[in-house]
Amino acid sequence: MATLFPPNGLPIYLHEFKNATGWTPDEPATPEEESKDILKLFTGSIVAYEEAKPMPLDVARAAVVEAHREGRLVWAHPTNIQGVAIARDASVDVLAHTTSAPGAWSSELVQSLMQHKMALIPTLKLWKYLTEGAPAPSVGAHMVEDGVEQGREFSRAGGRVMFGTDVGLV
């Protein structure tokens, strides 16, 4: 399994791991650079508490095409609405969590996810965990509340809601 991040878009919570281990993340800038065995895409990567870096859509599409050619499912960590749109437009199969965007997702967004037959793993605990060091302590709580509403709207629209994640957060 490989994970692709946007160019210079390593999530803030992986910097310490990278520095401690010497690990080099895959951050392709063009479709030609994407040649890994894909499972997860960071279509929106949290590079700072108030900033998510989007994956270029053409890179995400190339990764999905290759993964699907190999019969693999593709998951995306969208982080924000732009990341959800990139995942949708690249034909990703599963959103690994809700977004940090305030409030519920629009009915138009939810319907477009339904049309693309995407599934959602809410992973609500993620937001509190990722925002433990945020400047405002309430940031994580608000993101959890918003994630509950996003997941609720997705489920009400008939979306496939799955449970589980790769880091043990539910």
List the helices and strands and how they pair.
Blueprint: E1 2-4, H1 15-21, E2 38-41, E3 44-48, E4 51-54, H2 57-69, E5 75-76, H3 81-89, E6 94-95, H4 107-115, E7 119-120, H5 125-130, H6 138-156, E8 160-161
Parallel strand pairs: 1-2, 2-5, 5-6, 6-7, 7-8
Antiparallel strand pairs: 3-4
Summarize the structure.
With 170 residues, the protein is an alpha/beta fold.
Question: What can you tell me about this protein's structure?
Answer:
With 170 residues, this protein is of the alpha/beta class. It has a single domain, classed as TIM Barrel, CATH 3.20.20. 37% of the residues lie in helices and 14% in strands. It is built from six helices and eight strands. The chain has helices at 15-21, 57-69, 81-89, 107-115, 125-130, 138-156, and strands spanning 2-4, 38-41, 44-48, 51-54, 75-76, 94-95, 119-120, 160-161. The chain has a six-stranded parallel beta sheet. A hairpin with a 2-residue loop joins β3 and β4. The chain is globular and about 40 Å long. The two termini are 21 Å apart. The model has no long low-confidence stretch (mean pLDDT 84).
Features:
170 residues, alpha/beta, TIM Barrel, 6-stranded parallel beta sheet, two-stranded antiparallel ribbon, 6 helices, globular
Biggest sheet descriptor: 6 strands, parallel
CATH superfamily: Metal-dependent hydrolases
Just give the CATH class.
Alpha Beta
From the N-terminal CA to the C-terminal CA, the straight-line distance is 21 Å
